[in-house]
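Appendix B. Chain record.
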Amino acid sequence: MEKLNYMERFYRHGYEELLMKSIERRPTIHTLFMMNRLINGGGDREFYMALLKKVTERTDIEKEIRDVAQEYIDFQNEDE
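Structure tokens predicted for this chain:
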């Protein structure tokens, strides 16, 4: 958690762009968790949700990663 808190110090200082590039390149459970926190923080929700959706549709990554992305989509849509 310390690493996450350290990285969040860069919120709105380039952190989001680097995170998006990382997720586009090779999403991980950790980077998806970080994106979910961005969505919770009220960032560019539509863009982030669309990126999560793209992750669920990829066939070049592990099913576990796709499933985690779908779990975050479901979680975020609970409030709607």
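Further analysis of this model is presented in Appendix C.
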